[in-house]
TrEMBL record:
Allows the formation of correctly charged Asn-tRNA(Asn) or Gln-tRNA(Gln) through the transamidation of misacylated Asp-tRNA(Asn) or Glu-tRNA(Gln) in organisms which lack either or both of asparaginyl-tRNA or glutaminyl-tRNA synthetases. The reaction takes place in the presence of glutamine and ATP through an activated phospho-Asp-tRNA(Asn) or phospho-Glu-tRNA(Gln). Pfam families: GatC. Belongs to the GatC family. The gene is gatC. GO terms for biological process: glutaminyl-tRNAGln biosynthesis via transamidation; regulation of translational fidelity; translation. SUPFAM superfamilies: Glu-tRNAGln amidotransferase C subunit. Its EC number is 6.3.5.-. GO terms for molecular function: ATP binding; glutaminyl-tRNA synthase (glutamine-hydrolyzing) activity; transferase activity. This is Aspartyl/glutamyl-tRNA(Asn/Gln) amidotransferase subunit C. NCBIfam families: gatC (TIGR00135). Heterotrimer of A, B and C subunits. It comes from Pelistega ratti. It catalyses: L-glutamyl-tRNA(Gln) + L-glutamine + ATP + H2O = L-glutaminyl-tRNA(Gln) + L-glutamate + ADP + phosphate + H(+); L-aspartyl-tRNA(Asn) + L-glutamine + ATP + H2O = L-asparaginyl-tRNA(Asn) + L-glutamate + ADP + phosphate + 2 H(+). InterPro entries: Asp/Glu-ADT_sf_sub_c, GatC. Keywords: ATP-binding, Ligase, Nucleotide-binding, Protein biosynthesis, Transferase.
Length: 102
C-alpha cells in the first residue's frame, strides 16, 4: 500500500497543517517509507515467539521505569479553573476540540 499526493493533502487538511509542495513531497516519501516498514514487519513469521516487554530483554534483564500510577495533585475547583483557563473553548468543565474526523 502506498499513499498518493492526494492522500497526503487530505491528511494535512484533516490535521490542519499547511504543507507546501516540497513539504508534501517529503511527507509522501516519509509516510510511504513507514508503510513499507510496516509491511516488512508484518511479513516476518512470529509464530511461537513470545512477546517482549522491551527489545533488550532478549539479551539482559530489563526493568521498566514506570512510576506508580497515583494522584499527585489535590483535586479542587480552583485547580480545575486554573487548568480550564488555558482552554480555547470549554463546556461544563471540559475542553472542546474541533472535529478532526469527517
Amino acid at each position: 500500500m502506498s499513499l498518493t499526493p492526494n492522500d497526503v493533502s487530505r491528511i494535512a487538511r484533516l490535521a490542519r497543517l499547511e504543507l507546501d509542495e516540497t513539504m508534501q513531497a517529503k511527507a509522501l516519501e516519509e509516510l510511504n517509507s513507514m508503510l513499507d516498514l510496516f509491511e516488512t514487519l508484518q511479513s516476518v513469521e512470529t509464530t511461537g515467539v513470545a512477546p517482549l516487554a522491551h527489545p533488550l530483554s532478549v539479551h539482559e534483564e530489563v526493568s521498566l521505569r514506570l512510576r506508580e500510577d497515583q494522584v499527585t495533585e489535590p483535586s479542587s475547583i480552583e485547580a480545575r479553573q486554573a487548568l480550564m483557563a488555558n482552554a480555547p473553548a470549554e463546556s461544563d468543565g471540559l475542553f472542546l476540540v474541533p472535529k478532526v474526523i469527517e
